[in-house]
Amino acid sequence: MNSLRSGERARANGAVEVFSKLEGEIREVVSRSATASRVPQQNDNELAAGNIGSLLQHVSGTSVQEIEKLIAELQILRDTLQKEAARVQREIVGYTALIQNARRSISTISESLSFWQSDRDNSPRISA
Description:
By secondary structure, this protein is mostly helical. It has helices at about 1-35, 40-120.
């Protein structure tokens, strides 16, 4: 279970790193656009749009791959949990049968003891 949690933590940290990197790159593009000279504004706008477009394609491609990996891992975990649930159900059925057999044994022993007790009570007593 701890290995699953550490794996989940690693994936979450990876996702945080990707989003942090994306945020940093967007801030960098925005700051470059803000500090660049405004003389050829059309070229700057095209350059910024191109940078943002390529950045978004890169990040979205990475994000889609990460999401697909997470989906595959979640499907594996779901299958594992379903198998484990079936195993636990089988064990419960086994324990139920064991308990029923134990109750029958206890009942038989109790009846035998009560039979011996009644025989002892019905036997003649010798008075001294």
